[in-house]
Structures are given as C-alpha cells and as structure tokens.
C-alpha cells in the first residue's frame, strides 16, 4: 500500500511540474532566458515558430508563477526585458540535465538505427 501512495505523490509532483512548465513553448522560452535576459523581439527570434500572441501568453503564465521576471524600462518607446527569477534560476541544472539526456539519447537512437 505504501508504494501505491508514494507513486501517487510522485505522480502529483510530476503533474505539478507539467502544469507549470508544460506546453509546447515554455521550455524553449526558459532555455533562451537561461543564458541572459532578453527583450521580447529577441525571444521571438530565439523561439522559432511561436506567434507573438502565444509568446505573450506563455510569458504571462511564467511570470504569474514566479519563474520569469518582466522588467519595464522607461524609454521611448518603452523597453521590456525578461529574465529568470531566483526560482527560475533553480531550473538551470534541470535544463542542463535535460540537454545532456537529449544528446545521449539521440546518440543511442542513431547507433540503434545503424
């Protein structure tokens, strides 16, 4: 019975991660912000294929949960920069591990198909 409860807790935690980071674009956005703060147009160029409307939506969701920070600079026209918050920065090692896993898994798939 305890294993079943542990499994439920782990699945609940995974569900939470997917709720916060799930979707087609969030990991692309976070990866772009992994290296430095970016303006909206820079993010739009980095995340190939995302529409401006969808980018705004995803950024608002990431900002609402406290992973992305939106900083407005009083210029003409107004400049908006996005960066990872302290909570967002805690994702850096996870994103790095995901990249390592992807590289290794792609190599394995490639060697399996030869």
UniProtKB/TrEMBL annotation:
Domain HTH hxlR-type: 7-110
GO molecular function, one term: DNA binding
UniProt KW keywords: DNA-binding, Transcription, Transcription regulation
Parts of the chain that traverse the membrane: none
Tree of life domain: Bacteria
Protein name: Transcriptional regulator, HxlR family
Species of origin: Pedobacter hartonius
């Amino acid at each position: 019975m305890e294993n079943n409860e542990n499994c439920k807790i782990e699945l609940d935690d995974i569900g939470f991660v997917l709720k916060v980071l799930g979707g087609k674009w969030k990991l692309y956005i976070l990866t772009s912000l992994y290296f430095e703060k970016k303006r909206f147009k820079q993010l739009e160029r980095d995340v190939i294929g995302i529409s401006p409307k969808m980018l705004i939506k995803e950024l608002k969701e990431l900002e609402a949960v406290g992973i992305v920070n939106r900083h407005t600079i009083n210029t003409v026209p107004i400049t908006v920069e996005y960066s990872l918050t302290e909570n967002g920065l805690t994702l850096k090692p996870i994103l790095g591990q995901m990249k390592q896993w992807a590289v290794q898994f792609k190599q394995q798939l490639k060697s399996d198909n030869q």
